[in-house]
Amino acid sequence: MLALWLMLLAHAPVMLAQEPESEPELLILEVRLDQSVLSGAIPAYAVGNHTLLPLGELASLLTISIQTQPVEGVARGFILSEDRGFSLNLDNASVTLAGNTQTFDPALVLAEPDDIYVAASLLEDWLPLTFEVDRASLSLRAHALEALPLQARLAREDLGGRAGMPGGYEDPDYPRHEQPYRLLSVPFIDQTLTTEVQHSNNRTQGDTAYTAYLTGDLLGMETSLYFSSGLKNPSPEVRATLGRHDPDGELLGPLHARSFQLGSFSTPSVDNVSRGIGGEGVTLSNRPLTRPTSFDRQTFEGDLLPGWDVELYYNGALVSFAQPDAEGRYRFEDQPLSYGRNDFRLIFNGPLGETRVEQYSFPLDQSMVLPGDFQYSLTEHRDDDGQSRTIAQFDLGLSRSLTASAGLIRAPTDGEEELYSTLGVRTFWRSLSLGGGLVQAKDGGALAKLDVQTRIGGVAVDASRILLTDFTSEVFTTSNDPILTRDALRLTGSLPLTSRSRIPLTLEATRDERESGRANTDVSARVSAYVYRTALTNTLRWRASDISEDTTGSLQVSRRVRDMSLRGQVDYRLDAESDISSVALSAEKYLADGYRGALGIAHTFLPPETRYSAGLTKSLGRFGLGVSASYVDTGDIALGAQLFIAMGRDSRRSDWRFDAQPMANTGAASVRVFIDEDNDGVMGNNEAPLQGAGFKVNGVKHRAHTDAEGIAYIDHLPVKQHLDIAIDTATLEDPQWAPEIEGLRLVPRPGSVASLEFPVRMTTEIDGTVYLLEKGVERGVGDIELELLNNRQEVVARTTSSWDGFYIVPGVIAGEYQLRISPQQLQRLSLSDSGRRELTVSGDGDFISGIDLKVFPSSLTTPLEPVVDFLD
């Protein structure tokens, strides 16, 4: 079995050369430049061995002045400077770079309604960039061969460290759209119907199960409901949660809460005291929603439908894997944060081939509480076994580099309740973080901890020591030989592999010394690499005590061959009897129109058993469908089928939308665009909808475009965080059309559709000439700054005159205005002007020309010539 698996990997390049061309497969990639995340998700296409990237979207993210017109099949602009022109024409498969025209393989370019997708290998030939595409972790890393304007801006503003925002996205300060809560809304529903027949030990039995996950508004709160029931277990599993989330902290009046929940949820874990556990209760907090759950730890949890799994990546390396528990949830508890980068990606894989990605970034310095800021979290909870917990935690920012914390925890220990109080302090310097804490139990036990985080070279170092005195908790349980000290060390870094890639490496070691003098040591190492389009992760763990020693390992390999995905895993032991424990190999092939075929084989050596599996799935369209079969060489046979339907109601259209991809955990927006002829911001009966308008979500182009009714449905929006939606002005057919508002900011809610209105108005241009009057002679003068003011005396537009004095103010909507020369410039240059010009813009689109202004030396100005020279 192992030999077969190795042969498949070794012959993958040959298979690659022999595979025929395939249908494009949609990918969702994270984009990163240097250490900054530019976008958490852009669309791309896998075509055989090539990855096709959106030219217009990438150019926008990387601040390269290229715009695409996919309908016409052209792209134009320039690369870094106007003398390096760029022109792409799909009709004759040619590209012109700085005047030099060349042809390319048209199979490497794909025109879609939203953008022109170009193979990464072609873009590397055309642009001063190189790309690393990791299909295993759905990430794209760009390397600039020449300095980009974006890199200079990131260096100035350090945008990569802003919590909750992509590294290259600048807050546009759009007005907030308030989405009122309802007493009762029609929910979004993710539902799965599964049936299975098994034959084992000469006995055949079947089962059918139904699972539904619903989200929406109820009693003015966000609500989720999970329901599961089957023939074998007819007693339904039900859990419900109600609450609200507000990243601005405007909940519950003077409490300034950012979240509260009641119903079913998991408790937060408390370092060294209690673990997270599911149950019923109520929780309240004003902590920022995008910050870690604790200073140096982060817990990820959420709902997960049957048949789904989720992979957790840390700084590009696969670290953990989870499937749904009995309550339909997943949890990655207390993932450590190190000094420097802490980039996490959750990749969700569905049973029908579905994929979705969530991306998070937690710079360690942003875990500090701002000076004078007080943060709290309160939880009262009872788990499924009836054991109750109370968790109250508080943080206070004493200075920019010093945070104090305290807490009170009531938790079960060995079947009885115990009360704990905690005190801690954390300081953060430029290259070092130090923390100390004390936990005191009511029974007299105590725990003290000291930890340090820093970076040495390119390696993040986390070290800690814990001292225990008669201390017991859910983490340190009662023992005849209790632990006295625990030392921990964690090293996270990377080793250079090639000039453009590195190997992520993590080493963790823990040593416990007990009262008897015995010591237990646990060491684990994880190394990941992406070599020749193959992703590899090897994890090795060594455990030793005075009486035993054990070493285990796991190697995971993933490779794409054309439109086929190969995955393999080998579990093994390294000790006196080194052996392979199990081997597994699976292959998935994209067929067409969302269909996938899958084959798998897995073998365990003790006891010897081989399982063969096959499946066919459909994951696009209005529903998902899958059939599967498996056979074990012991004679067991299983046949199964699964039907998945996600459904949600668009209240604007009063119709239902169905999808093969889950939608209950996401938000949506129904956006209407229209020509606002009367300039009142409301769509009248005689005002025309605007078809074909596109949008940007957090600065990234979205695939949705308005239909004949001027409405676009933007779905699968991330929830519980600020989101900016704006019209992509490049998609407006008439260059004189302009949105009345640039964009709107909202906080999407699960199972809720926000109704947005974007009026578009006809604009005009104002032009004229600025003259310098000197000794009775007029001449046009350049570099004069002009300002356009509305009727509230607000500056709504600025422009500068050219060398001959000519100026243009573009994109002016209907209204009353005043045009003036900048008072600050007049004062700085000791000039006077002829006064403001009153203007009325009717909104019919006609240009307003010949609006001339004059400047002349102030009567207080004596050295006239220097002023004239400056203006020239």
Number of helices, counting only DSSP H or I runs of 4 residues or more: 7
Low-confidence stretches: 1-22, 156-168, 860-872
Approximately what portion of the residues adopt beta-strand conformation? Answer: over 45%
Structural class: mainly beta
Radius of gyration: 31 Å
User: How much helical structure, as a percent, in the residues?
Assistant: under 10%
Bulk shape: globular
| Overall pLDDT confidence | 84
Alpha-carbon distance between the two ends: 81 Å
Largest sheet: 24 strands, antiparallel, barrel
Task: Give the total of beta strands.
Answer: 60
Model description:
The chain is mostly beta strands and 872 residues long. Among the domains are: 23-161, no CATH class; 666-762, Sandwich (Immunoglobulin-like), CATH 2.60.40.10; 764-871, Sandwich (Immunoglobulin-like). The protein contains 7 helices and 60 strands. It has a 24-stranded antiparallel barrel. The N and C termini lie far apart (81 Å).
What key attributes describe this structure?
Immunoglobulin-like, 6% helix, mainly beta, single chain, 60 strands, 24-stranded antiparallel barrel, disordered C terminus, seven-stranded mixed β-sheet, 872 residues, 7 helices
